Amino acid sequence: MDEKKRENPGNFGKYKLKNAKSLKKKVDAYFNAQDSHVTTALVGTGPNAVVRTFPDPQPYTWTGLARAIGLSGRQAILNYMDRDEFAPILKDARMRIEEQWEAKLHRLGNNNGVMFALMNNTSPENGQWDNKVTQNVNMGGQPGNPLEIKHSIDELSEDQLKAIEAILMKK
């Protein structure tokens, strides 16, 4: 597979991002737009109603960042991270997104969506975020030493065999 296809799958022509300086401008513009977003609302009723503008920062997302810099999605961002000139800018952007998601874990009551995003979108080199509990159940002694059966079926009495048969027939 040629180098161009490996680095730029799905878009075998020219790269959309020309240089690190233009990428940095687009990334900064995305975060500034998300942070400075405002909502306008009608407050009050009747003749006392007034239009007010409220700060309404929007969440950072992979898809939003990709759209802002002119890429097709998260995978396209990851492809550009392989290029030395773009990697520091995109890795910093990824950390900013992860930082906001982590902060939301401390504020929100229902964290399932944020936890899902962190488990599926964080980077292995930064330490994959996971929510796993691992249990090692070892029957039979030492790790890697399976349970040993010390009696063969030939050594069982007829009463023992009938008891086993009765148990198996119930299932």
Known CATH architecture of the domain at 15-126 = Orthogonal Bundle
What overall form do the CA principal axes indicate?
A: elongated
User: Could you tell me how far the N terminus lies from the C terminus, measured between alpha carbons in angstroms?
Assistant: 55 Å
Structural class: mainly alpha
Task: Please count the beta strands (DSSP E, at least 2 residues each).
Answer: 2
Q: How would you state the average pLDDT, rounded?
A: 78
Radius of gyration: 29 Å
Quaternary state of this entry equals single chain
Spans of at least 5 consecutive residues whose pLDDT stays below 50 are: 1-9
The CATH topology of the domain at 15-126: Topoisomerase I, Chain A, domain 4
DSSP helix count? Answer: 7
Order of helices and strands: HHEEHHHHH
- Percentage beta strand: 5-15%
Order of neighbouring strands in the sheet with most strands: 1-2
Q: Summarize the main sheet.
A: 2 strands, antiparallel
Query: Which CATH class of the domain at 15-126 is shown?
Result: Mainly Alpha
* Helix share, percent: 40-55%
Describe it for me?
The protein contains seven helices and two strands; from the N terminus they run ααββααααα. The chain is mainly alpha-helical and 171 residues long. The chain has a domain of 112 residues: Topoisomerase I, Chain A, domain 4. The protein has a two-stranded antiparallel sheet. The chain is elongated, with a radius of gyration of 29 Å. It starts with a helix and ends with a helix. The N terminus is likely disordered.
